[in-house]
Amino acid sequence: MSVLIAALSLIAVIGLIVYELVLQSRPSMHELGWKFLVGQTWDPVSGDFGALPFIYGTLVSSLLALMIAVPLAVGLAVYITDMCPRALRRTLAFTTDCLAAIPSVIYGLWAIFVLVPVLRGRVEPLLARYLGWMGLFSGTPYGIGMLAAGVILAIMIIPIISSITREVLRSVPHQQREAALALGATRWEMIRIGVLRNARAGIVGAVILGLGRALGETMAVTMVIGNRPEIAKSLFAPGYTMASVIANEFSEATGNLYLSALVEIGLALFLVTLVVNAIARLLVWSVTRGLPARVHAQ
For residues 169 and 103, is the Cβ–Cβ distance under 8 A? Predict the structure, then answer.
């Protein structure tokens, strides 16, 4: 009975959060309607509010972070689990786990003083020179912008994805590794066929947890993304995220409509998180063919 109460209390907390967000968002919903989600203008002075630039900035910065972080995190987990010398394994794993405990504001300060100058002076000019024809790397290399936000988010979620992936890889039965090697597979073939294939559902779950951290990250992103509500194709351009605009403007918001618009952005962020988790469940189902998402000993 106590376990049932604990489970129902969790559902009740989520329900209360949704109820409060919807209640506080009603003035904005009534005044702006669906225009709020598709509008691109954010002008508190004239009472014109559109959340599309913030939704765009949140999704683009998070997806960019995943593109950078997932290969590095999975590769790091594979190295620590199956390739790293035993004397170095514990030290490297401990160092990776410690990165997850660093406060986000520290990452933001490091990004301002180290990452942004490197991007502005070296990385972005090279990208503009060789890949500027794509449109994603065009414009003035300010250093602060969507690319900086994606890179700092990637650095922040690498420890999360790597730690969970490492535990998933450890759960793969050791007999599968020995069987693959006994059949003549190389070490990489053993890892690819005998380990990664059996751990793919858990790796997808680790990636989704990293995406959840990236979607809701506030301080570090706010410090380097530029905080300009616009939709630009170039990753060099400044942007804005839903979490950042709430953190920046909620304490200074005046008027019921302004406050309600910010709360509705919070509701939109909540809904985006739900959609992402729903997609994650579909991905887990697709890679496991409808079987339970766990590793089976053969």
Answer: no
Tally of CB atoms within 10 A around 43: 10
Nearest to 38 by CA among 22, 24, 63, 55: 55
The rounded distance, in Å, linking the Cα atoms of 173 and 187 is 16
What is the C-alpha separation between 183 and 139, in angstroms, rounded?
Answer: 54
Pairing of the two strands 42-43 and 48-49:
antiparallel
- CB atoms near residue 286 (< 10 Å): 11
Average pLDDT over residues 37-51: 87
pLDDT in tens, 89-111: 888 988 888 888 899 999 999 99
DSSP code string of 130-157 = HHGGGSTT-S---S-SHHHHHHHHHHHH
Compute the CA torsion angle 25, 26, 28, 29 (nearest 10 deg): 110
Tens-place pLDDT, residues 9-18: 988 998 999 8
b/e map of 89-111 (b: 16 or more CB within 10 Å)? eeeebeebeeeeeeebeebbebb
